[in-house]
Amino acid sequence: MTIRLGVIGLSPGNGHPYSWSAIFNGYDVLEMQECEFPVIPDYLSKQSFPEDCIHSAKVTHVWTEDRCLSRKVARATLIPNIVDRVEDLVGSVDAILLARDDAKNHFRYAAPFLKAGLPIYIDKPLALSVADAQAMLNLQTHHGQLFSCSALRYAPELNLDTSQRQMIGDLIEINAYVPNDWEKYSIHAIDPVLRILGDSGVFTAKQVLLEGNKTTVCSIHSSGTWVSISALGVPDAPITIDIVGSRGDKRMVFENTFRAFRAALQDFVDGVGMGDVRTPPKRLLAAVQLIEIGCRP
C-alpha cells in the first residue's frame, strides 16, 4: 500500500516543500523553474525521474498559509489536492511532512497531528529548547510517531565507515562548521557529529563563544572527545567536519543534498510502514540540548 503524505509549508527562506515533495512525486520541469529557490531545480535536474523517486509513498495533499503558494507547490511537484485548513489533513493522509524550519512554530503545527496519532516528520531543528522538544514528545500517542533530524545525518560523506575509523583510531577532537545562523543551521553539524560519536553519552564543560555573527559551542563528550561546533554566520561556507584521531585525521565536506534528503525521507516512511522508532527521543533531546546552549539571548 502506498503511504499518503500531507506536506505543510512554507517558512521564509525554506524550500523543503518543493524538494521533499519532488522526491516522492517527481516534478514538472517548467513549473519548478518558478520555484523561489533556484538551487532546488538545479540539483533535481541532476537526478533521473521517476527512477530516483521514493516509490513507497506519495505526497497527496498540501497546505500553506497562502493558497496561491500552495498552488505553486502543487503544480511544481504534482500534488493532486490542496486543502484550505491545515486540520483537514487529518483523515485524508497517513502521515505528515511538517516542512517548515521555523522551530518556534513547530509545536503549534505539530500538536493536532500528534494528538490524532499521525506520524510526523518535523523539519530541523525540532525545537530551540529541551522543554519545547519534550512538550512535543509528550503528545505522542505511540513510540516513534515523531521523526526529526537534519538530513545531513544520512549523508555518507559526513560519516565514518569501519576502515576510516581504523585509520583514524580513537577520536580525540571533532571540529564542525556550518554556514549562516546557529538556531537553524547548527543541527546540520550536531546530527552528523552525534552519529559519529555513536548517539550515546553526554556533553560536559560547555563553553559558548560569540564573535560577530559567529557562534561556537565547545564541549567534552563522555567518550573523552573534544567537540567544537561553529555556525559561521555567513551564507557560502561549506558544511565541514574535521576529525582528529590517535592515528590520523580526516576532513569531511557535505556534497550531495538530494542524496541526504532522500535517505532521511526514506527512513521516515520506512518507519511509518513498519511502526519502528527511527529517531529515539534521547537522541532528539541531546541534539536540542546543544542547540539551546548556543542560542543567543
Tally of distinct domains: 2
The fraction of residues in strands falls at 15-25%
Estimated helix fraction? 25-40%
* Averaged pLDDT: 96
* Annotation field: number of helices: 11
Low-confidence stretches: none
**Annotated CATH topology of the largest domain:** Rossmann fold
Rounded to the nearest angstrom, the distance between the terminal CA atoms is: 47 Å
The strand line-up of the biggest sheet is: 3-2-1-4-5-6
Shape: globular
- What's the main sheet like? 6 strands, parallel
Tell how many strands the DSSP assignment holds.
12
Q: Could you give me the name of the CATH homologous superfamily of the largest domain?
A: NAD(P)-binding Rossmann-like Domain
Q: By helix and strand content, what is the structural category? A: alpha/beta
Radius of gyration based on Cα positions? 19 Å
CATH C-level label of the largest domain: Alpha Beta
Which H/E pattern describes the elements?
A: EHHHEHEEHEHEHEHHEEEEEHH
Can you name the CATH architecture of the largest domain?
Answer: 3-Layer(aba) Sandwich
Structure at a glance:
The chain has 297 residues and is of the alpha/beta class.
List the main descriptive attributes of the protein structure presented here.
297 residues, six-stranded mixed beta sheet, Dihydrodipicolinate Reductase, domain 2, alpha/beta, Rossmann fold
